[in-house]
Amino acid sequence: MNGTADEVSLEKQSQMRSIRDRLCPDTRGNRFDFCYLSQVLSLAKFDLGGEMKLLFLSHEIPSPAFSDPLPLYHEIRHLSVLYGHDITLISFASDRSRVEDFQYLKSFCSVEDPIRTESGPLNKLLLEVVKNSVLNLPKNLKHGLLVNELDYFYDHRMDQKIKEVIKEGNFEIIVSTRQMANYVIDVDVPKIVYPFDAMHEARRQVFANSGGLQKIAYGLRYVLNRSYEKRIYEEFDACLVVTQLDKELLESLNPRIRCAVVPLGVDANYFIPADTNEEPSSLILLSALQYPAQIANVFFFYNEIFPLILRERPDAKLYIVGRDPVKEIVDLAADPLVSVTGYVDDVRPYLAKSTVFVAPMILGTGMKNKVLEAMSMAKAVVTTTTGAQGIAVRNREHVIVADNSDEFARETVSLLKDRRARATLGANARKLVDEQYSWEKVTKVLNDSIVNVLSHRG
């Protein structure tokens, strides 16, 4: 190739920007222009820091529809296209897995046929956990565990598949979600566990806020999870979490855990400000609705905050949007001022029409990707310190942070009354997302973490 090194570098950067623009979803919501696939895959192999063979292990097919494996969906794409890495993905597939996600990921990596997990009655699942715990007892005892909570995810078919792929693949590094870490804990390949947050702290909070017989069950889960994180994560070259607080929690649990922070991102070309008329006095609460912490957050808002808002704005309407709502949350729809949607294919219309986005988190760890999605759509957000954790927001500039019921209600009512304040807050939030939370920027942090592990191993 002719030209100076600087000219070549500029040419590469221009071509890679072109690839990025093709990859990013456009304003119509199209996620990929497949007629450019061959161009993407050929131009992506530039020397942008060195190509690597990576193996990703996920407990679910990564998808933008589910918050838990969502980061991998975007990070695999960008690690492949922007850095030219050769990636293999092994995962389970559940009843909620989507064929379109499987096909999309195959554009950027080699996807092993997922192993289907079976749902069933609770007693059957518990028997399976007990059986797996007995089978894995020698391995668990080796790592100081009498009972391994995550034996729930053990499957001999998956164990065999991972061993075969590793033997044949000559991978330079393995990246595993928390649920899959057991499969590679003793593998002599540089490896990273990617739990996203300090789950033992989330379990502790639920335990502390529960009562009756549930407190015993939640207490047991807390003890088992704390033991798991303390014993297992130190066996990995790095442990990736999404906030500095999660890093500090895990390192205080065991100083031998080598944590690094890789924040969550948001698809800012998909979650864009919408030219849609807001429904007056409408509030949206967006969350997965089957977990104890999220359930507690919903009822905190409905019981403690929403009545205070209604005193000032009796026309206020609350939309609770999210998958798998438990019966107690579904029953809230008996209130004519509350709508419980359950799972929706596209949350953007609900975000677009809402006047204010509320994120009343009193329990939980990690970053809240739903808050990032609302910010990306330039919505006015009212949340708590927990809801804003890990996001570089300034109170009253990007979001409103309110940690008690009275203040939360007062700030929400104020925004419902003030269109200009909502617009200013939303514009600042969107600007912050563009500057810091695109998946391209987040994936660079992940790639740097991978390179750092290999440099220390080398």
Describe the structure.
The structure is a single chain. With 458 residues, the protein is an alpha/beta fold. The protein has two domains: 47-265 and 439-457, Glycogen Phosphorylase B (Rossmann fold, 3-Layer(aba) Sandwich); 282-436, Rossmann fold (3-Layer(aba) Sandwich). The protein has 18 helices and 14 strands. The chain has helices spanning 5-23, 37-43, 70-83, 99-105, 122-135, 137-142, 156-169, 199-208, 212-232, 244-253, 292-312, 327-330, 348-353, 369-376, 385-388, 405-417, 419-436, 439-457, and strands at residues 53-58, 86-93, 110-111, 115-116, 173-177, 191-196, 238-241, 259-261, 282-286, 317-321, 338-342, 356-359, 381-383, 400-401. Strands 1, 2, 3, 4, 5, 6, 7 and 8 form an eight-stranded parallel sheet that branches. Helix 3 packs across helix 18 (439-457) and helix 11 packs across helix 16 (405-417). The radius of gyration is 23 Å and the shape is globular. The model is unreliable at 1-9 and 24-49 (pLDDT under 50).
- Termini, distance in Å? 32 Å
Uncertain stretches? 1-9, 24-49
How many H/I helical runs?
A: 18
Task: Tell me what portion of residues adopts beta-strand conformation.
Answer: 5-15%
Fourth CATH level, the homologous superfamily of the largest domain = Glycogen Phosphorylase B
**Backbone CA Rg:** 23 Å
Structural class category: alpha/beta
Domains, number: 2
**Mean pLDDT over the full residue set:** 88
Shape: globular
CATH architectural grouping of the largest domain: 3-Layer(aba) Sandwich
How does the major sheet shape up?
Answer: 8 strands, parallel
What is the CATH topology of the largest domain?
A: Rossmann fold
> What's the CATH C level of the largest domain?
Alpha Beta
Strands, total number? 14
Query: Helicity, in percent?
Result: 40-55%
